[in-house]
Backbone:
């Protein structure tokens, strides 16, 4: 992928010569995995419930696998976290008899709300049946859920301080936003391109929309691209139509209404359009344009996804590109869509 500041200027955001992160424009990242590990341990070890059956207490954490990070782009925070946890609990009945069991959490991640967490409790295999298990199912699961919710709250409110710097407009900070996280897989690229013009090429259109009034027929070109992604078709489909995903891989604020007839605008308004047909996990069709193209002129773009098990082949067809604009358009799609998605999400 081209460095920001290189290539066609319509696809990029100008950088300051002094490298100042003006208005928090540049992408910054903080790894909070160690912090998260410690806080998750503290919160889970504080879980204790009591009832008519007796008392249950989480005693130790024997599995805590995952990672977490906070990212800042142009004053907006994105949180990535994914954890699998397993803890032991000790229950003491009113009679004084002790019982041992486990707590499992398999899906603590930015993709799931607190209420959607899968939390299971059980007795160890060598333990006899006891009403304390009912106590853990009734009250223990709720206590664990609250503890994990408190972790997410602390991650977003307390630890994120300092990620957003003061802006030229003052100290105002927007509320945090959570971005979805895709599974990281091995890169594999396969690109092919063909170009076809419907008439003789014409000079590049002026940056002023008035140079080519609406309704005037202009020479246009078409081209095709082919790309292979190491991910499933449903993940790739979601990456193109989900606003949070688009903001992450374009590294800029975007507006994306991922439904038929929904509008989109990204790269600071340099690119805009409308989704005209959406076939989940298979096909995306859209009207698409550069801001510098003749007023109200749109190309038609189709993205067809073929799931091949551990990879997905994407076939792109683009028609109606103003003659003379096919090279920067093709290069922009390759660098700032396809390669950006690969580098950001790892597939």
Residues:
């Amino acid at each position: 992928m081209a460095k920001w500041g290189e290539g066609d200027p319509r696809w990029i955001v100008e950088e300051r010569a002094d490298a100042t992160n003006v208005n928090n424009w540049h992408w910054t990242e903080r790894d909070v995995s160690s912090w998260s590990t410690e806080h998750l341990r503290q919160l889970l070890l504080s879980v204790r419930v009591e009832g008519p059956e007796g008392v249950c207490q989480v005693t130790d954490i024997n599995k805590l696998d995952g990672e977490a990070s906070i990212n800042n782009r142009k004053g907006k925070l994105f949180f990535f976290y994914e954890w699998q946890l397993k803890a032991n609990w000790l229950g003491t009945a009113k009679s004084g008899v002790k019982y041992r069991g486990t707590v499992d959490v398999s899906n603590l991640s930015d993709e799931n709300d607190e209420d959607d967490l899968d939390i299971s409790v059980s007795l160890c295999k060598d333990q006899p049946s006891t009403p304390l298990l009912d106590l853990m199912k009734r009250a223990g699961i709720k206590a664990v859920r609250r503890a994990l919710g408190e972790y997410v709250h602390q991650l977003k409110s307390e630890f994120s301080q300092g990620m957003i710097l003061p802006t030229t407009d003052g100290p105002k900070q927007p509320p945090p936003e959570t971005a979805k996280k895709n599974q990281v897989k091995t890169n594999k690229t396969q690109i092919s391109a063909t170009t076809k013009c419907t008439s003789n090429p014409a000079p590049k259109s002026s940056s002023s929309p008035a140079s080519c009034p609406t309704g005037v027929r202009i020479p246009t070109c078409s081209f095709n691209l082919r790309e292979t992604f190491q991910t499933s078709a449903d993940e790739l489909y979601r990456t193109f139509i989900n606003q949070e995903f688009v903001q992450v891989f374009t590294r800029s604020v975007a507006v994306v209404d991922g439904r038929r007839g929904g509008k989109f605008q990204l790269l600071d308004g340099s690119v805009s359009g409308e989704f005209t047909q959406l076939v989940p996990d298979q096909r995306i069709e859209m009207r698409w344009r550069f801001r510098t193209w003749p007023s109200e002129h749109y190309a038609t773009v189709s993205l067809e996804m073929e799931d091949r098990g551990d990879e997905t082949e994407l076939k792109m067809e683009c028609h109606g590109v103003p003659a003379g604009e096919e090279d920067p358009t093709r290069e922009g799609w390759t660098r700032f869509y396809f390669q950006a998605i690969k580098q950001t999400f790892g597939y």
